[in-house]
Amino acid sequence: MQSMQQIITWRTAPSCDHPKNNFVFIEVNRAGSTTIQCMLMRYAYNHHLHVILPRNGLELKWIKDSGATFDDLPWADGGYNVIVHGMTYKWKVHDVMPPDTSYFSILRNPENHFKSMFHYYDVGKVLGITGKNQASKILKNPSALTDKKGGIGETQFVTSVRMSAQARDLGFGPGTDFDQPKSLENFRNITRDFGMMVILEHLSESLVLLRRVMCWELRDILYLDKAVTTYSYKDIPMGSRQLSNLKMINKIDFQLYDFFNQTLWKTIKGLGPEFLEEVSYYREVNIEVAEYCRQIETEETIAKLSIPAGKWTTGFMVHQRTCEELKLQFEDWNTKFIMRRNAEIRGESENDVTDTEGTEGDLPPPPKVDNLPRPSIPKEKEENLPPPPKVDTPPPPPLQEEKVDNLPSPPLPEIKKKGKKTDKKSHNSAKDILDEMNVPDELPSAPK
Known about the structure:
Layout: H1 4-11, E1 23-26, H2 33-46, E2 53-54, E3 72-73, E4 82-83, E5 102-107, H3 110-120, H4 123-127, H5 134-138, H6 144-147, H7 152-162, H8 165-169, H9 181-193, E6 196-199, H10 203-214, H11 240-249, H12 251-271, H13 273-298, E7 305-307, E8 316-318, H14 320-327, H15 330-346, H16 379-382, H17 430-436
Helix pairs in contact: 1-10, 1-12, 2-15, 10-13, 11-12, 13-14
């Protein structure tokens, strides 16, 4: 297996002269996934890619006892390029997608994720908790989460928390930590299969890195926030006791977040100051485009916004159609793809169904995709997979969740060098692997 750093170096080499158009994004609920899904659907639509569409709703479901088959709406000529709809990650998705498919997902600081889930399922109301910091109150005595039975919101929330909700979306089953063999195996699968992981608290850095990994243009990673909610305790930090209790019941999510957050910043440090310059430029452009789209709502006539060619972009125009696409919700994109797919099935021109004038670049459709079986991974590669992270790392300070793009980048962590290699076959438990990680004492936090 190539490490994430090796993948980034290869992807950003001068030979990276064409975009990667086969990709799978695994949705993680309440972690900023909707914003990323809309961005990816816009890219797929404007590049005429085939997205796997659920037959009903917005979630993909595997057909039981049918091998690697979704209950989906097939395209006329077969072949898929993209998965972005909700699904639990499973290895058999590789049998559906082309061999060169890129896989990535998103993670959120587990403290913030817990509060978001608590608010989303209205657990305070179900359990009769009042006050400004309801989520923190319940963690003073976490057994209260299971003492009361009743509301569906409570049931789903308790299940999600005790199973580490983010890890569950990435294919982890029930488990408390990496001492369970199945959880350790799932961790190794994720580090092997995923080229990178978006970190919500460092969204700008993550998206610029994604652009380089996928050989995309800067305009491809423009976005407007989607499904952002506010509540009284959103920015109130948890006390040490509450945070400790949360780590006990949500351990795998903390381990995953710490590992991939550190991996992100280790990669960024290796890319040098020029990468952070691009991040700063990207933030400025995204803000400028968002402001332009706000103005276009109130002004009858407004000139197109020109983003000139430069070091990090070939240049592009922003117009009303661009803003309309940026504002579309995920459900809207799903409908647009269904209309395009139905037109293909009927053999109609796309213009008979929807107006495509003004799409970015009027890009031609890609060649037909032949879904070849993905080759199996030799066992010897399994032995070189990175170990899971330590879990006793002090938690980062309270984070501002989605709104980090207008602020300076956080400091880069000092990465400790690994000591003498050890024979992984000699490990007697997951604890030995965790101890070998030798991660920094402190992880980078979002800017205040």
